[in-house]
Amino acid sequence: MQRTLIAALALAASASLSAQEVAVQAGGLRVHEQKESSFSAGYSYTHPVNEHLALSLAYLNEGHPSEHHRDGVAGEAWLRSRPNRPGWSFGAGVGAYYYFDTTDLHQGAYTNDHGWAPIWSLQATYHYADSRWYNQLQMNRISPRGKDSTTSVMAAVGYQFNGVKGDKLHLDGPSSDDTLSLFAGQGITNSLSSERARVTALEYRRAIGRYVDWTVTAIDEGKRVRGQRNGAATQLWLIRSLNPKVELGMGAGPYFNVKVPEGEGQRSHKAGLVSIASRYHLARRIVAELSWSRVVTDYHRDADLLLLGAGYSF
């Protein structure tokens, strides 16, 4: 399943067709083993490989059923009918889902579990004539081994962007782009009470290919009830341009901590960082960026980092 997601990432970065689609989803979810319902939400990027085959990357939030808060990132391959014509089209997708699950152990204790699961999806999409906007209904089935399986049904609003090759169109050369950015935002601990703190970060970003960026980021996660964490992360990113000003990217890499918060189990100073970001080029050398990052730990102190920043390219 890991290989499926990696392959989807790589192919989405290099696919040549141009009808790139971005959708925002919301709906309901059913936890089968617990016979319980909750909300679901998501954000997806889809790129066609040919008329009937597409690849997608998505962030999914599986709501807040009792004793579990689970979300994750998914990569899927799709078979679709009539995807770029007015009227209805239909699709079926299958892929891999990497999940983050906050589980209640009672008496104030919890765990942050991580793992892979298969995901199956069905989709019905209505395309409007003479418009790039579309509406969509999607069903997802997620079945982790030894965990609760879920079925979600979500309605979506999506947009097809103008066709571009997809590489970093703002570059003068094929592999030279250095940006220094300053960020501020909020950190949310992945506990059942979701403690919050102010977060700041300083990032150096370099394009090492027309679809690949490399970053080094200094992060201060601020003070929380359970302690303080800061350190430095390095990530590799797959980048797609939606038009000459807008980029979407997904990155992952190690996060080395100078300080770690209080936590049960292994007190490692290493963690992982998984990120999704949208960048907007305000001018030739000025870029704004909005990002979500998940800190993945082995000592049950995962966190979300929601950051907004601005950078200067040189």
TrEMBL record:
This is Porin. It comes from the Bacteria. Keywords: Signal. Residues 1-19 form the signal peptide.
